[in-house]
Amino acid sequence: MACGIIGVTARKSHGASSRIAEIVKKGLEKLEYRGYDSVGVAAIYDNKIVVRKGKGKISEVNRRVKLDKVLGWTVVGHTRWATHGAPSDVNAHPHIDCNGRIAVVHNGIIQNYVELKKELIAKGHRFRSETDTEVLAHLIEEYLKEGNEVFQAFKRALRRVKGSYAFGVIVVDEPDKIFFARRDSPLVIGVGEGMNFIASDIPAFLEHTRNVIIVYDGEVGFITSDSIYLEDESGVPIDVKARIRKIDWTPDMAKKEGYPHFMIKEIHEQPRALRDTFRGLDESVEKASELILEARRVYFVAAGTSYHACLVGDYLLNVLAGIPSLSMISSEYKKYRKSIGEGDVVIAVSQSGETIDTLMAIRVFKENGARVVSISNVVDSAIPRESHYTIYTRAGPEIGVAATKTFTTQLLVLSWLSLAVAEKMGKLGKGEAEKLRRELERTPSLVSDIIARYEGVTKKLGEELVNSSNAFYLGRGIGLPIAMEGALKLKEIAYIHAEAYPAGESKHGPIALVEPGFPVIFLVFEDEWKRHMLGNIEEMKARGAYAIGVIPEESDFIEERLDKAIVIPKLEPIVGTIVYSVPLQLIAYYAAVAKGYDPDKPRNLAKTVTVE
Amino acid sequence: MKGLVLAGGKGLNMRPLSQDYPKVLLRVAGKPVIDYVLEGLISAGVDDLIVVVSDERVEEHIVRKWGMHASVVYQEGEGLEAAILSALEYFENFKHFVLAYGDIIAPRDFYKLILDTYINAGENPVLSTVPVIDVESYGIAIVEGNVIADVSHEPSKLLKKSSYALAGAYVLPTKLFKYLKSDHSLPDALSSLVKEEKTFTAHWTGYWVDIGYPWDIIAANCYVLGNLKCSLISSKAKIASSAIIEGPVIIEENAVIDHNAVIKGPAYIGKGAFIGMNTFIRKYTSIEEGAVVGAFSEIKRSSFQTESSAGSYSLIVDSVLGFRAVIEPRVTVLSALAEDKRILRELPLQGIIKKKRKLGVFMGPESRIKAGSIIQPFTLIDAKSIFS
After folding, report:
1. Could you write out the DSSP letters of every residue in A519-531?
2. Which CATH superfamily is B2-212 part of?
3. Is A607 marked active-site?
4. What ipTM goes with this model?
5. Residues of B in contact with A453 (CB under 8 A)
6. Of B109, B349, B353, the CB nearest to A464
7. What is the CB neighbour count within 10 angstroms for residue A180?
8. CATH 3.40.50.850 for domain B223-387
9. Please, what are the averages of pLDDT over each run of 10 residues along chain A (612 residues)?
10. Taking the model in full, what pTM does it have?
11. Domains in chain A, please, with CATH?
């Protein structure tokens, strides 16, 4: 999974003895996009290794343990993103051997760490953390004991390890060196003046040097302040000079993996995010569903995009399980201060787990005696910590301010949860629930197909919307929250005023605004409302609206009434919510790009809202 | 990094604009098409370039303007494959090289993204891709995550699975030459390459036009002019005090804007171009170097290539006038396409109330339209011919 590593070693003439730690801390900030739930550094000073690390964002941990005040000229650092197992001070990198003479930072997964750990424990090694990484420190220690040179011991240790890695290792015996190796996880070397670097990504050191060597899979080596040694898998030294590249572009582009913006990268990551979320679903779903079953009443609370996810969860609980529930926007929670309490269950949805309004709301409801289930993307963040149960989306870090992959994974979790509840209520037969679950399991490949097939059309549509200053999104039933989310996306990144309405409500007012050329986006699901939607399309067309539809296959009678149609496979509505969201994200993205805006940094918005 | 630029194509689909006129020298908002490619590559650090040409006019242009960074090689034989092999000797000793088509209009960031992806992907090969409608008119890429799974130029194989066109700039291993030498077509060679070596996509989402059809010049003008952030008016342009200029425009030196002319940008008026009295130049129009628009005319979303001209009292919309093409006075061009007319690579829709698909007239070099003609939508006029 995504973590970031960095290592810097420099001549002692480089100023104060905490100067390198400062550079490492700044580099870690540049790598924070790779993960930000725990962070740490290790340095060699006075023949000792000093480790400072902790759980939390870099700025918080730095406030606690002063990462940037560590002394020494050879320093490694790590920023972590936990997917399985909670982030904690102990599990944060760097990890050290028994005697604290070796420190390791690692990005990747050691698959055979359980066996290795057993073997090492049998030999008397004492482990401190639950991580896979720690075994490498002990392995090196073991081979050093056998009398190997450090580099030799490092290479022998690597031979024992199966899995993916980019390692950075420091050892007290050779205090001027940082050893490194790469397999399947990114690693680059920065070639500076009396100061050399290793890092997961170029921006980490770009401030100090633009001369870069890309480390290839299987290569290992070490850096000192003035030299770089690199050899290939078979131990043949590599001509380092010939491999140096000069980087003359903006550092910001580097971490986007071939995409111009994080938002489009994250849209494309949705199949993987959905798949990982499936795999991560655990007994917390079961426990949450039991809470809901026993509940007097069920409420949903969230803000922004997460609120739209709540509306879907709310809809499914009502329709599938027959449980009346209610969604609220978290900043409006005070309305329910007296009414929600003992016996009630509150489901809080927050990508960051830190949304302040949502946090305040659950605190009040909890105090009143309500039980809290949360859905979050950040393991052990504030809202999960204060909840009775948490179900995690496994979307990975989301950098774009506009939520995309975290929204669709929230929908997946809420759908899964609703099915569990409906099944336990006896409202859904076992077979039926199972069938819908199989359908949900298809979402990664469905989403992947939809992106590949329709990105061209949505780009064109986005470009067409550029000349409009308004748009409507209309849907019915479970399509309504998806319409609301589509409208929010268009507003927040393309700055086009967009409103969503229940399609049946439009003639009670909004239709008055429609004039020739006014874009209206219809979400037509394969459900009982399909025919009704046709009527809504007709009434908008009659007023000259530019009608765009996302519609199911075999709906020619609808397609021929539309100006533009995105025709997707016939889907169960519970699956449709996830799939229909994707073209709407793309339309908004391309409208923003065509208008020349940066979709990753919409004006006036922050990723995580931590002020009331 | 070393780059190979293909600029020797005949541009068959580009006729009549490319009849006896090199496609890559056609102008978009003041610059030949090839300049967009070379500028982009050089700004991304690909500054050692070999340009494959088949026309002396292109050679002359490259040497004069890009001599610092580019040398010219003449194409031996027909087709893309032959074009690439013509430059073989310059690349043999390298591991990777950049291959770029000389007829792509995209911002510089497009090329930056490709080089950036290359470095960031651990120096693996990179193919640029771009989402399009009408994917059947391009090479198609199948992408899984950010890795290219397959490429093809046979739409039937991959259509409906992908809307990603190969975007015409790649970082490739030099073993490509080996494949081409053993009679692989370029698509087949690419298809083999991506199966052998992990190849990443540089997924471009900004504007991008492959200049393949005459109306692609209009689309390119729309994008390039649409991205003008400010006006640039030469102090050496002669602009009548009564002329009205709105919106972003570029007006080059020695251009003449006569009395009561109205220019509503974004628009481009080239060196020494002439805009007659009371003439109305509307959005997305480029009047290139030395071109002339007579008095009392209206021009919308059109490109006047170098030294072309239109007489007075004409209406010219959604059209391209090739090199030295002439429209005599009182000509009207119609452009609204019939509903059932199917055309590849449609232009952005236009019209405020009824959004309509539109294409006007496309005139080959030195062709002529007789005075008083009414030209039906989507008319192609051969080079040097006279239309009446």
Report:
1. EEEEE--SSTTHH
2. Spore Coat Polysaccharide Biosynthesis Protein SpsA; Chain A (3.90.550.10)
3. yes
4. 0.88
5. 160-163
6. B349
7. 28
8. no
9. 86 81 91 81 93 88 91 92 72 92 92 92 92 94 94 95 92 95 88 93 86 89 95 92 76 72 94 91 92 94 95 95 94 91 94 88 93 89 89 87 94 96 90 93 94 93 90 95 96 94 85 87 92 90 91 89 90 94 97 91 67 58
10. 0.82
11. 4-256 (3.60.20.10), 257-441 (3.40.50.10490), 442-612 (3.40.50.10490)
